Amino acid sequence: MTTPAEAFMAAYHDRKPHMTSDLIDSCRVVDDGRTSYQVLAARVSGTRCVLDLGCGDGSLLAAIEGAEVLAGVDLSAAHLDVARARPELADADLRLARVQELPFADGSFDAVVSHMVLMLFPDADAVIAEAARVLAPGGVFAAAIAGGVTGALKVFIELANSLLDEVPEERRVHIGGNPRIRRREGLDAMLGAACFEPVSWDPIDLDFGGPEADVWARCCETFYPVGTLDAEQLKRLESAFREGTRDLVENGRLRAGMTMRIVETRLRAGLPR
Description:
Its EC number is 2.1.-.-. Residues 51-142 form the Methyltransferase type domain. One of its GO terms (biological process) is methylation. It comes from Amycolatopsis carbonis. The structure is a single chain. This protein has 273 residues and is of the alpha/beta class. The protein has a domain at 4-148 and 173-209 and 258-266: Rossmann fold, CATH 3.40.50.150. The chain is built from ten helices and ten strands. It has helices spanning 4-15, 19-26, 36-42, 59-63, 77-84, 124-134, 151-164, 184-193, 212-222, 231-244, and strands at 28-29, 49-53, 69-74, 93-96, 109-115, 135-150, 200-207, 249-250, 253-254, 256-266. The strands form two sheets. It has an eight-stranded mixed beta sheet with strand order 1-7-10-6-5-2-3-4. It has a two-stranded antiparallel sheet with strand order 8-9. Helix 5 (77-84) links the parallel strand 3 (69-74) and strand 4 (93-96). Helix 7 (151-164) packs across helix 9 (212-222) and helix 7 (151-164) runs antiparallel to helix 10 (231-244). It is globular and about 55 Å long. It starts with a helix and ends in a 7-residue tail after the last strand.
């Protein structure tokens, strides 16, 4: 059964189906200028059958090279409509489904990927168990999960959190994943329980900065709970944000950054099915 938080996220993306890919494209890895989609796709390029958990508008799947079979699930019908229109995904198997209840047979895939999705679910153990179920023994699980934030993005999240207590209970949405996901030892324990090997844990730093108006828009798009604020609260948040980030502007560019962790593991071979 879809939870209230999942319904909120689906509606959020149905309204703006291109938003996430536009955001990812505008925030590049500091060291080499790639997007985080490109970084994650490289971990499974050349793999025969790949499934994307929370595939969005298909940008990550489209970046994967050399796969014979591509598949994805998402909660947003509008996301999937955009993905199905991509020429690169003309033959992809794209389905409206929850990541905790995958509509695929056991051992169907050689790789499963997940970009900034695993951390959203309190029942992440169920997501991991489903990833293990649909993977063939020895298959790869690769994910991008959030790390720290700096500069204007950090200011924004602190200010937004200070306003969320004012949101009436009927409008509140609780999108908070299992905190163990964000620590390597916690993630290893969760994955190990599903018979995965210990993870590699590679941080990448993303440049989130730019003109003030662009950074403000990116911040709003990054932090789901902002969608519960009313117009007056959002106006107050914007005013406080502009004041609170005044010292972070250099040559017309507002500083902001995010760290992602690219994690990778394999399902142990020789497991009973």
